[in-house]
Design a protein that fits this description.
Helix content is 48%, strand content 10%. It is α/β, with parallel strands linked by helices and 305 residues long. The chain has a single domain, classed as Aldolase class I (TIM Barrel, Alpha-Beta Barrel). Helix 3 packs parallel to helix 4. Its EC number is 4.2.1.43.
């Protein structure tokens, strides 16, 4: 894996057949489409992969399938989040053994009411760090209900050997990114943002070096990062503004369903099924999504045709 990893690291959706079963061939096609979109790495089994509706057996099978199929063409990041430390450790070891370049994990939580205190969160990450030799990306998002302060994140980067990448996705993420970079210095190998790049320009201004979006339009978002980091801030702004209508529609109206709907329309996958209690897109929302995707001539919209 190139070090440090920069650019765009999109989350691969998990395709299901229309009956709700996992579509293995569809998963392979998703991965191939992402590689053809020119991504710098692929993240699997994340929240936008619907990891929370997968059984343990399905999750393990998808990890093996994905790592086998990508076969080193790009780095693969495996999400290993779990409340139980021993399960997170086991997932991390399995991912490393199968060839993952990095793991990503949220702090342990179970709803907003069961969140361990800071010393136990530190021990949770330490156990995983001690068990593997590949980098860990800390996913810091409001979903967990954990308040991970900048001093705490910087301490983990300083004291835990494998903790070096951070995905920050919350209101005012740019301020937190800038503070983390200042506090952590060289221990922060990869400050990333998320939220479909809705705040990417501000986050790049703050010092982020990449973004973890969905699989919807990485070929259009990656140039924003590369232009900005090469000194072309004006070009990056122009490209971001071009993408914003679709980014906003995905972020505010579609969520994880957007990439699946476009990939189905483009022949990448056969079905955009999401497992209950998630609901499919309304016809109104889908129509606007596909119109915006057509305006940008997305690779995913024509990849399988």
């Amino acid at each position: 894996m190139p070090m440090p990893l920069t650019g765009i690291l999109p989350v691969a959706p998990t395709p299901f057949h229309a009956d709700g079963t996992v579509d293995d061939d569809g998963m392979r096609r998703v991965l191939d489409c992402l590689i053809d979109q020119g991504v710098d790495a692929i993240c699997i089994l994340a929240n936008y992969s619907e990891q929370f509706v997968l059984s343990d057996d399905e999750r393990a099978a998808l990890m093996r399938l994905s790592l086998d199929h990508v076969a080193g063409r790009v780095p693969v990041i495996v999400t290993i989040s779990h409340f139980a430390t021993q399960i997170a450790v086991a997932r991390a070891r399995d991912a490393q053994a199968l060839g993952a370049a990095m793991v990503m994990m949220m702090p342990p939580y179970h709803g907003v009411g069961i969140v361990p205190p800071e010393p136990l969160i530190f021990e949770h990450f330490k156990a995983v760090s001690d068990a593997i030799r590949i980098p860990i990306m800390v996913q810091d998002a409001p979903l967990s209900g954990c308040q991970l302060t900048v001093p705490f994140l910087a301490r983990m980067a300083r004291e835990l050997d494998q903790v070096s990448y951070f995905k920050l996705e919350m209101p005012f993420a740019a301020d937190k990114l800038a503070a983390l970079i200042a506090a952590g210095g060289a221990d922060i190998a990869g400050p990333f943002d998320g939220e479909e790049a809705a705040t990417l320009l501000a986050d790049l201004d703050a010092g982020c070096t990449g973004t973890m979006t969905s699989a919807l339009l990485p070929e259009h978002i990656r140039p924003i990062v590369t232009m900005y980091r090469s000194g072309d801030a004006g070009g990056a702004l122009d490209q971001w503004q071009r993408c914003l209508p679709l980014i906003n529609h995905e972020n505010r109206q579609c969520g994880l369903r957007a990439a699946k709907a476009v990939m189905q329309a483009g022949g990448v996958i056969r079905s955009d099924y999401v497992r209950h209690p998630l609901a499919p897109l309304s016809d109104r929302t889908r129509t606007r999504l596909l119109a915006l995707a057509t305006d940008l001539d997305l690779i995913a919209l024509r990849w399988g045709k």
